[in-house]
Fold this sequence. Notes:
mainly alpha; 52% helix
Amino acid sequence: TAAPPVFAHKAPVIRPAVQPIENDKDQPVYKHIDKTTNFGAKYLLKRIAAYLADSALNLVISVTVLYLLLYEKPLNAELILNSGVIVVFLLFTGLINWASITSQEVVFGTSIGKRLFGLALDGKIITTFLRALLFIFSVSFGGIGLFWAVFDRKKRCWHDLAISLQPKEKVRL
């Protein structure tokens, strides 16, 4: 009788820990999302820092745009400090901030602030956009929808819970 070959058993298949996301028209090309994100205090601080970084950048952009629009106009302190002007300014900067972050997340799967802190979204375009729309409700009611993340086990805000999509940490290469 012939002896069986030495390598007769099947070798185990080794798969990477994170599978790349398939690229289709409804999904961002952003790959390398870590599915094992640790949702602790460090994660929550990253989310807060990312949002503050995005907001600071967008505030600088919106103030610069307003300055350029009003540069040649005769303005006085009484007009600028009018409560109506302040409300319009806050609404304008809030809208610019939301639109900028939303467009970055929908197109790239992340924003500049999230990218700085190693976070990204891995949802489809429509899901990411709906999450951004529901962010408005999380901010409403005094921000209680955002504050909810402090008590949630996975550090999710209302808009994350409603859509079942939240930022994940990018894989460290």
